[in-house]
Write a structure and sequence with these properties.
The protein folds into three domains: 53 residues, no CATH class; 117 residues, no CATH class; 93 residues, no CATH class. The protein has eight helices and six strands. The strands form three sheets. Strands 1-2 form a two-stranded antiparallel ribbon. The protein has a two-stranded parallel sheet with strand order 3-6. The longest helix is centred in the N-terminal third of the chain and has 27 residues. It starts with a helix and ends with a strand.
Length: 278
């Protein structure tokens, strides 16, 4: 359909141009050169239109935003995937989202268990549940302009590479934000925070290196809270793993796969690696 419309437009332009040439002597009161005839102008206009359609002219600063919007809308939804394996363990709660937030229910205190009770009637207590509101973040990327001549003339798929680049950046940033958001805001009885206890890394922004004992302490805290053994996940940043490789020979010998560069499960944790910036 678009081809037919383009063809009819070219024919109409050529026709009216030829008519203008036919009428020009009467308006200009002079004769045109012999090689300028309605027929030559008609076919010349058609030929020029064909040449221009084959070789598009570059217009600096022009971007076809409507086409770009179609590509983003379709491809990002299709290809957006998280490479961070630890996120696959978190169940989707899209059906709980209300007004850009997720509402969860924090169950109240457990009831006391009575052994060989002799006091009746048994005491009754209430249970107060709390609404936990998790605010959601919105992630955007800056637009990448693809010009008309880039879209048609480049020998590679630039729209595809741009989409892949935006997808990868989104996955990296959302994974880092997710790992940070899953951590407790402060050390409490129900949300213990294990501080690293190794030697200083000796850098300008000094910090204590992670040790195997720190991971063992994390297990101890979870055991004291009676967190089920099944399903415990430990997400280590690449800096944590680097600390352990530098200072802990037993980590390299027992809990590190040299071939694939991944730590293995330890102390009941399924260990995941999250690549991080220095």
């Amino acid at each position: 359909m678009k081809t037919f419309i383009r063809f009819m437009s070219v024919m109409l332009i050529a026709f009216f141009t030829a008519v203008a040439v036919q009428a020009a002597p009467a308006f200009l009161h002079t004769e045109l050169p012999s090689f300028i005839t309605p027929a030559s102008v008609f076919f010349g206009s058609i030929g020029l239109s064909v040449i221009l359609s084959i070789a598009p002219i570059q217009i600096p600063g022009t971007a076809f935003m409507a086409l770009q919007k179609e590509l983003w809308t379709g491809e990002l939804i299709k290809h957006f995937r998280h490479d961070a394996v630890f996120l696959s363990r978190i169940a989707s709660r899209n059906n709980y989202v209300q007004n850009n937030a997720i509402h969860l229910v924090d169950l109240g205190a457990d009831p006391n268990v009575l052994i060989n009770n002799t006091t009746y009637p048994i005491n009754s207590v209430g249970r107060t549940d709390e609404d936990v509101v998790i605010s959601l973040d919105k992630f955007d990327t800056e637009n990448t302009i693809i010009t008309d001549d880039e879209l048609y003339a480049l020998p590679y798929d630039k729209p595809g590479s741009v989409i892949e680049q935006h997808r990868a950046v989104l996955e990296e940033r959302t994974s880092e934000k997710a790992a940070h958001s899953l951590c407790p805001q402060a050390a409490t009885g129900d949300t213990p925070v294990v501080f690293t206890s190794g030697a200083s890394n000796g850098e300008t922004n000094a910090r204590k290196r992670m040790t195997v004992s720190d991971i063992a302490n994390a297990k101890r805290f979870l055991d004291n809270l009676k967190v089920p053994l099944v399903g415990r996940e430990l997400v280590l940043s690449s800096l944590h793993v680097w600390d352990l490789l530098l200072t802990e020979q037993r980590f390299k010998d027992q809990w590190y796969n040299i071939q694939n560069g991944q730590p293995v499960n330890m102390f009941g944790f399924t260990v995941r690696l999250l690549l991080s910036r220095n």
